[in-house]
Fold this sequence. Notes:
The chain has 190 residues and is mainly alpha-helical. It is 67% helix and 0% strand.
Amino acid sequence: MSSMNGKPTTAASTALAVEPAAPADAAVAIAAFVDTHYDRLLRLAWLVCRDGSDAGDAVQVGLEQAWKSRASLRDEHSLRPWLDRIVVREAGRIAKRRRSLVARLFSPRPGVAWIEPADERIGDRADGMTLRAAFGRLSPDQRAVVALHLHAGYTVAETADLVGAPLETVRSRLRIAKEHLRYELGEVSE
Length: 190
């Protein structure tokens, strides 16, 4: 698994370095690569998509894109943010497509509870459900910056780089998302 500072483990480094000339070695390297990053990326994609199957699709497409463009990764120490960027952008694209007229007419499918880790700061179950519902009503762009900044621990500048938006735009999305969540949770009066 990758460390918190973004340095990949040897399995991930090996997986990126594998040349397609050795099919058996490539298959092993791909499996190690996916196994190393899948759970973390699935949680991150789920925070943006708010749907388990969409998050799985985003991770699958993202890992395929990463594997195909692995030669463009110049510094193996930036593997974690590079993968996060690819998966979050794909999750955002999927989430935006889902917001079509038909999707807005019907209520969203229930989320997959096992993907989102429990957080003792939330309090009781009702508070957690209210928070999840409020978070789900944020736009995909707002969910992406909140997930990267508050969940994954990136700085605002790193988050801006990962989502490909100007720094002030990301700050604005974070501010609006926090205001929306505070309002939804009843922490701010009308």
